Amino acid sequence: MLSQESLQQIDREVAKYPPEQKQSAVMAALRIAQVEKGWLANETIEFVANYLGMPPIAAYEVASFYNMYDLQPVGRHKITVCTNLPCALSGGVHAAEYLKEKLGIDFNETTPDGLFTLKEGECMGACGDAPVLLHNNHRMCSWMTKERIDQLLAELGGK
Amino acid sequence: MLEIEIDGKQLAVEDGSTVMDAATQAGVYIPHFCYHKKLSIAASCRMCLVQVEKAPKPLPACATPVTAGMKVWTRSEAAIKAQKGVMEFLLINHPLDCPICDQGGECQLQDIAVGYGGVTSRYQEEKRVVFNKNLGPLVSTDMTRCINCTRCVRFTTEIAGEMELGQAFRGEHAEIMPFIEKTVDSELSGNIIDLCPVGALTSKPFRFSARTWEMSRRRAVSPHDSLGANLIVQTKHDVVMRVLPYENEELNECWLSDKDRFSYEGLNSDERLTTPQIKQGGEWKAVDWQTALEFVANGLAGVARDHGGEAIGALASPHATVEELFLLQKLTRGLGSGNVDFRLRQSDFRADAARAGAPWLGMKVAEVGELNRLLVIGSFLRKDNPLLAQRVRQAARRGLHVSVVGPTADDWLLPVRQRALVAPSAMVDSLGQIVVALAAEKGAEVDALLRDRLPAQAGDEARAIAASLASGRKVAVWLSNLAVQDRRAAELQQLANEIARLCGGRAGVIGEAANSVGGYLAAALPSAGGLDARGMLEQARKAYVVLGAEPDLDFANPALTRAALGTAQLVVALSAFDAESLREVADVMLPVAPFAETSGTFVNCEGRAQSFVAVARPQGDTRPAWKVLRVLGNLLALPGFDYQDSEAVRDEALAGDIATRLDNRVGEIAPFAVVPATCERVTDVPIHFADPLVRRAPALARSRDAAAPVARASAATLAALGVEAGARVRLAQEGGRVDLAIVADDGVAAGCVRVPAAHPATAGLGAMSGAISVERI
C-alpha cells in the first residue's frame, strides 16, 4: 500500500510516542501517506489505521476534521488561499477571485488538465504577509499580488 | 467528602464528583443530552449549563468537578437563560418532523424543548441535511435529527469495546458515521437506540409500527442467556411490539444484548404452533386440546404399562421455566421413569453422582467488577453471554487480568493477557498443568483426588497463567459453554475447582441458558439409575416427551437425536413452534406458550430466581406449558398435580434457601479414555441460533452474527489436511456428514476444525466434540 520510505517515515513518527500510544502518530502518518499518494482514499486511511492499531473510523475522524487532508483526488498543484479576515482586508479575496478567473475554476474544483486545484483555506499564521496562499500544503507563498500569482502559475504550469 | 450547595440544598459528595453527580444525589434534575452515567463525559451538548458562584460564565454540570464550598444554581435566571440559549441552538438544525418520528413521545429533545424551547424559531436560514447511514438490520437512521451528542460513539468504544461509529468532519458539517460501507455489528448494538436522545437512531424492526403511548408495558426476564436480563416488554393489542431493558444494576445494568432485545420478533413468527396436532397415518391433523391431551395421557400410560416406566424419557430445553421443568420431572417420575434431563447439549454426565449442588457462577454478577484475575475456560464469551463479557470488559479497564484456556481465540474486544490455545481434548491437560504450576507457586498440596492424574510438568503458558492467578486478590475461574459441553466436562470442572482453591478464588460455571441453574433446582435431572440426556438417546426409549427443543438444533448430537426419536413409538412435543424437525419425529405436538405468554421463573447464573407474569395472551390455542403438564398429571391420575397457580409450583420447586443448593464442587470422577483423533471438532453455538425463539427472529437473522456457517481451521491445519482456504469440504462424523466452505482462521487451535452447531447447514453432523474428518470435494 505505502512505499518502504513512507513506512520508515511513519515508523520514525511512531517512535516518538510510547509503544501503547502508537495512534498518537496518526496525523503525521496521514500526512506522509498523503504526500505519497496525493490524497487520502478510504483504503489509505484504513491502511494507516491498521498500521497504527486503531479503529479505521478514528483515523477517518482525524482525516475529515483537518482541511489539509484531501479526501478526494486533487490536481498536481493544490493552491489554498487564505480568506480569513486579516488576509481578506489585505486583498486575500481578490487574490482568490483572480485565481478563479485565471484557472477558470471555483473553490474545490480542479482544472480539466488535472494540474490545479483551488481551495479556500483558514488562517495560516502569516497575516503580516497577506495575501498568502499555500502550494501543496508545504510551500507558503506571501504577498500574492496579481503579478506574483501570474509568476507562480507560470512557474507551476511550466513544469 | 466535599460540601456543596445546590439550589439552596446543602449536601456532602464524594471527592471527584461532578456537579451532575451532586445534583443527582440531591434529587435535582438538570437537563442534559450527551451526559450518560455509564459513559465518559463529553460535555458536547451544553444543555446542562448551570450557574456557579464566582464563575463568570455558566458551566456544564456534567464536566465541572465539585470543589469545597461550591454554590450552584440550576434554576436561577442566569442558568435558565443559558439553558434556553443552548436549546435554541440545538433546535436550529433539528427538523420539525416529530409527527413522523419514531422517537416521538419518548424523545428527550422533545421533552426538554417543551421546557426550554421557544414557541417560534428565530432561525430563517437553510437547515442542515445529513444523509442516512446503513448501520445494519437492527438500527435505523435519520441522521438529520442527530444533535451530535456522541453517546452512540462512546457506547461502541467504551461498552461494546470496538469503535464502530465516529464523528467525522467538523463544525456544522460534523456527522456520526461508521467507517465507509461498514455496519454496526456488535452484539450489543441495539443499546445505541436507547441511548440516542433524539430520533436519529431508532429500532429498525419496530419502525413505524406503534407509538410509545399506545403500548402497555410489563416487566419480564430474558429467556436466552444465563444472565437473566430484566426486560420491559411492550405490547399493543396483545402483540409484543418491542422489548426494552428494565434497569437492574445488579444484572444487565441499563443494557440489553441484541438477542434479548430483538428476539421478540420470533414470538410473532409464522412458524408459531397454534393448535394441538396429532399425526395419524403420516398426516398431521389439528385437534382440540381434550383430544390431544387424552391421546398423550393414554399413549404415555400405555407405554408405561407395556414396557415399564423407564421406557419413557423426558427431554426439556434449558430455556424452559422452573415450573415447566419441575412439573415435567414430576410427571415423568410419576410414570415410573427416572429419565429426565434438560442439559441437552451436554455430553459428559459423570459428575452427576458426585455433585455437591447445582453448578453456578460462584459469585454475584455484580461482583465481576471487583475481580482482578480471571481464568475463562472453553468459551465464546462475547457471544455466549454478551453482557457478562461487557462486565469483564469494564473490569479489564480497571486492571482485571484475563487468561483464557480453550480451542478458539476469538476477539472478545478486551485484553487477554495469557492464552493457552489448545484442542478441546487437551484442555484437561492444560488445566492440569496450571494446577501443577500453581501448586508449585503457592507451595501447596494438590487435592488427593487429582494428584495421580496431573501432568508431570507445566509448560510456559500454564506457568504464565498460574503466575497471573497466583498474584490475584480476587480471582475467579469460569467454565463456559464449550467446557460444559465437552466430553470431559466433569474433569474440567474438577480441575477448575482445584485451580480456584489453590489461588483462593472462586470457581464458576457461566451457564448456557436462562435456566441452566434452575433446571438443577427444579430437579429436572435423572434419578439414580435413570438416564441422562445422552443416555436416553443412546439407549433409545419407547416414548419421549420433548419440551421446547428441536431434535436437529438443540441437542449435543443431532444425528443421534433424530435416530432415537425417529424410532420411538410415541414422541410428544411441547413446543411454541411448528418445526419441520419436530413434524418428522413427533406423533403429537402441543402448542405451549413462549416466555412472553406464560408466567414462570428463571434462575440465572448467580442463583437469582426471577419470576415473571405473562405479558400477552397466548396466541391461538397456545397454553402455558405448566398448565398443560398439570392437566396431563391430572389425566394420568398422578398425585400432587393440584396446583392453583404457577407460584404454587415455583414455591414447591424452589423451597428453601437457593443459596444453600448452589455448589460447584464435584467428588471423584472415573477417568475418561481419550481416543486420539487426527482432527477434532470445535463447536460453537452461534448467538442468534441458540434457541428456538431467537432463531425465528428475522432481523437478527440478517445480522452479521447470523451469517451462514463456515468451517474454520488454522492455516497450518488446512495445510496438514491438504485443503485450501475457501474450498468446499465434506465434514464427516459418526452419524452424519455435511458439505461446507472452509476458511483459514488462526484463532482455531491446531488440529481442530471449528464447525458451528444449531444451524440447519450443520444439523446433519454428530456430536459437538470429538473426531471429525475433512475431505476435499
TrEMBL record, chain A:
Asked if the record carries the keyword DNA-binding, the reply is no
Say if the entry is tagged with keyword DNA repair.
no
Q: Where does [2Fe-2S] cluster bind?
A: 82, 87, 123, 127
Q: Name one molecular function that GO assigns to this entry.
A: NADH dehydrogenase activity
Give the required cofactors: [2Fe-2S] cluster
Q: Which Pfam families match?
A: 2Fe-2S_thioredx
Q: Which UniProt keywords apply?
A: 2Fe-2S, Iron, Iron-sulfur, Metal-binding
| Textual note on the cofactor | Binds 1 [2Fe-2S] cluster.
Assigned protein family: Belongs to the complex I 24 kDa subunit family.
What protein name is recorded for this chain?
NADH-quinone oxidoreductase subunit NuoE
Q: Which organism is it from?
A: Pseudothauera lacus
Q: Please spell out the taxonomic lineage of the organism that makes this protein.
A: Bacteria, Pseudomonadati, Pseudomonadota, Betaproteobacteria, Rhodocyclales
Automatic annotation (TrEMBL), chain B:
A single Gene Ontology biological process assigned to it is:
ATP synthesis coupled electron transport
Superkingdom field: Bacteria
Keywords attached to this Swiss-Prot or TrEMBL record, sorted alphabetically, are:
2Fe-2S, 4Fe-4S, Iron, Iron-sulfur, Metal-binding, NAD, Quinone, Translocase
Pfam families, per this entry?
Fer2_4, Fer4_NDSU1, Fer4_Nqo3, Molybdopterin, NADH-G_4Fe-4S_3
- Whether 4Fe-4S counts among this entry's keywords is yes
Which residues does UniProt assign to the signal peptide? Answer: none
Occurrences of domain 4Fe-4S Mo/W bis-MGD-type (ranges)? 215-271
Q: Which cofactor does it need?
A: [2Fe-2S] cluster; [4Fe-4S] cluster
Q: 4Fe-4S His(Cys)3-ligated-type domain location, by residue?
A: 78-117
Q: What EC numbers are recorded for this enzyme?
A: 7.1.1.-
CDD domains from the entry?
Answer: fer2, MopB_NDH-1_NuoG2
Quote the cofactor binding remark: Binds 1 [2Fe-2S] cluster per subunit.
PROSITE patterns, sorted: 2FE2S_FER_2 (PS51085), 4FE4S_HC3 (PS51839), 4FE4S_MOW_BIS_MGD (PS51669), COMPLEX1_75K_1 (PS00641), COMPLEX1_75K_2 (PS00642), COMPLEX1_75K_3 (PS00643)
Q: Which InterPro entries match?
A: 2Fe-2S_ferredoxin-like_sf, 2Fe-2S_ferredoxin-type, Mopterin_OxRdtase, Mopterin_OxRdtase_4Fe-4S_dom, NADH_UbQ_OxRdtase_75kDa_su_CS, NADH_UbQ_OxRdtase_ferredoxin, NADH_UbQ_OxRdtase_Gsu, NADH_UbQ_OxRdtase_Gsu_4Fe4S-bd
Residue ranges annotated for the 2Fe-2S ferredoxin-type domain, each copy included: 1-78
A single Gene Ontology CC term: membrane
Q: Which molecular function term from Gene Ontology is one that the record holds?
A: oxidoreductase activity, acting on NAD(P)H
- Reactions the enzyme catalyzes: a quinone + NADH + 5 H(+)(in) = a quinol + NAD(+) + 4 H(+)(out)
Q: What this chain does, per the record?
A: NDH-1 shuttles electrons from NADH, via FMN and iron-sulfur (Fe-S) centers, to quinones in the respiratory chain. Couples the redox reaction to proton translocation (for every two electrons transferred, four hydrogen ions are translocated across the cytoplasmic membrane), and thus conserves the redox energy in a proton gradient.
Similarity comment text for this entry: Belongs to the complex I 75 kDa subunit family.
Give the protein's recorded name.
NADH-quinone oxidoreductase
Q: Organism classification, top ranks?
A: Bacteria, Pseudomonadati, Pseudomonadota, Betaproteobacteria, Rhodocyclales
